[in-house]
Each structure stands twice: as C-alpha cells, then as structure tokens.
Design goal:
The chain is α/β, with parallel strands linked by helices and 307 residues long. 33% of the residues lie in helices and 27% in strands. It has two domains: 219 residues, Rossmann fold (3-Layer(aba) Sandwich); 79 residues, Alpha-Beta Plaits (2-Layer Sandwich), CATH 3.30.70.
Length: 307
C-alpha cells in the first residue's frame, strides 16, 4: 500500500546555520499510529512543521497522499489536522465558534452534527457556549484537538497532546485516538510519555540531533532490542559469583540474596543451562521471576549510544 506520507532527503538549516533536520527519509503508513520519540531539541517539532507546510525545508521532498506539500500546499494542508504544543486560542471566543471557524478555514461546508460529535467525544459539549478564557488547561488542550478534527482530516499530528493533562483524561484521549485510527485516520504522535508510545503506537521512530535513528514496528523493536532479566531469590546469600558461572555474567544484588541473569530473547535456551549449572554448584533458590525492559529503556539506550 502506498504510504500516506513520504519524506525524502529532507533537511532544514536555519539562517543562524543551525541544521535542525539532516537528510531524513521517512514513510508513514496509511491508518497507523506512529510515535515519534526524541529528546528536547531533537527535531520532532521541526519535522512536523515541514510536513504540515508551516516550516519551509532547505532540501528534500514531502508527499502527503501523493501530493507535494510545497507545490500543492492548500490541497495537502486540508488533509492534515495539527494539534500543536502551544495553547493558542482566541480567549474570548466560545468553544462552538472556535471549532466552526476552524472548519470554515479549510473550505468545508457547515456540519453541526460532526462538530457536535467531536465535542462530545472530547467531553466539551457541555462547554460549547463557554468562553475559552474560562476553560481549564486540560479543556483547552482538548479544544485544540477538536479544532484539528473540525475539517475531518485524513492525517492527525499530535505534538505532545497530553502535556499538562491528568491521567484520567489522558486515557480518554488515548481511547479517542484509537477510535480515530479505527475510522481510517492516520495518527502521528510525539510525546515525552514513553508509556503513551508503548500503549498506543503501531510503529516507533526515534529522532536525535536532527537525524532519524531508527524506525521499527513496536513489537519487533521490543523483541530485538528489549532485554530480559531473570532474578533468582537465593536460599542462602552469596558473597561472590562462583568462577564456574562466569560465562553467564551474573550479578549479585540485595546483599547477595538475589542473582540476576540478563539475556536477550534469542538466549532463552541459556536459562535451562544456567539452572542446571546452579544445581551442580550447590546453589539453591527460593523463587524466580523475569522482567523485560520497557520502550523507555530502549529509547534511552538508543539516544545514549549516539551522543
């Protein structure tokens, strides 16, 4: 299937000489939730800005649904909804007027039923007549999403959408994002909450210092890069790991009461050998459990490697 967004050899250098994006190639699949992760200043917002036509690239091409963003700006922009980080709204407009105006900006005919559904989905319908200045920070964040959805875009960019939003509302917004994806909308999400990417994304991209470090299916990424640990709670504490077990690179923890074996998915067979060798060495354990590294562990490791 043809990707809905195709970025080729994209670069952005500002007048100061700062190179924010460096020869980026990226494809976003139609109908997926794509999480773009990266530390502050990595280039996430600049990349979104260039795809949306807000920032002019220094080099490269961007196609949205097969159309060039620079040559067909109005057509491509009408396909995109953008929820920015900044809470920029007209303070003394009503919620209803604000979303109605946003729909009209893209030349869409009036559709009160659609706008009502959007506001209800975002728990804003009861505040439709309220002035924006009277809304809480979380409500203003939801209003930004409503504005972005007013013209029924095919692609929705969410730039840190749940910053400053409480946990319950974050979960409601996750449910809304999944519903949008089920309806055919492609979602590109930037977030500092790694659990959001781990919970929601189909694929994950990591950007650092203006370069795409990695793009991978989330499940495959965690399978390939996610480490697992087997922790054995020993019957008797050890002062040191016996030399006969050196090949396993075991670690002692909890004052010698726990023995930790770190392994990758492909090394699962090593667990049986380890347990046999522990028995041969006279080391007994009371209990054991395994843990797997999270997406946050993987992200931190990838970024650290490229500093």
């Amino acid at each position: 299937m043809e990707p809905i967004i195709r970025v080729t050899h994209l670069s952005k250098t500002y007048a100061s000489g700062f190179r924010a994006l460096k020869d980026i190639d990226l494809e976003i699949r139609r109908g997926e939730i794509f999480a773009l992760l990266g530390p502050n200043g990595a280039g996430k917002t600049t990349l979104i800005g260039t795809i949306c036509g807000i920032v002019t690239p220094s080099a490269g091409t961007i196609l949205v649904d097969g159309r060039d963003v620079l040559r067909e700006y109005r057509a491509t922009r009408s396909l995109i909804g953008l929820v920015p980080q900044e809470l920029t709204t007209e303070a003394f407009e009503s919620v209803w007027d604000n979303v109605t105006f946003s729909r009209g900006l893209f030349g869409k005919p009036p559709d009160p039923a659609h706008l009502e559904k959007v506001l209800r989905d975002l728990s804003l319908w009861d505040r439709k007549d309220s002035k924006i200045v009277t809304l809480s920070g979380g409500m203003k964040r939801r209003l930004l999403i409503a504005k972005a959805l007013a013209h029924e875009p095919q692609v929705l960019f969410l730039d840190e959408p749940t910053a400053g939003v409480d946990v319950e509302l974050r979960r409601d917004m996750w449910a809304l994002v999944r519903a949008l994806r089920a309806g055919g909308v492609t979602i590109i999400l930037t977030t500092h909450y790694i659990d959001e990417a781990e919970e929601m994304a189909d694929r994950v991209g990591v950007i650092n210092k203006g370069e795409i470090v990695l793009v991978e299916d989330k499940v495959e990424l965690m399978r390939k890069l996610g480490r697992k640990q087997l922790t054995l709670h020993l019957a008797q504490p050890l002062e040191r790991v016996p030399p006969a077990l050196a090949a396993y690179r075991l670690e002692l923890a909890n004052r010698g009461s726990d023995l930790i074996y770190t392994y990758e998915e492909r090394d699962r067979a090593g667990i049986s050998a380890l347990l046999n060798d522990l028995a041969a060495a006279g080391i007994r354990y009371r209990d054991l459990h395994t843990t797997q590294s999270s997406l946050e562990d993987i992200f931190v490791g990838l970024v650290s490697e490229r500093r």
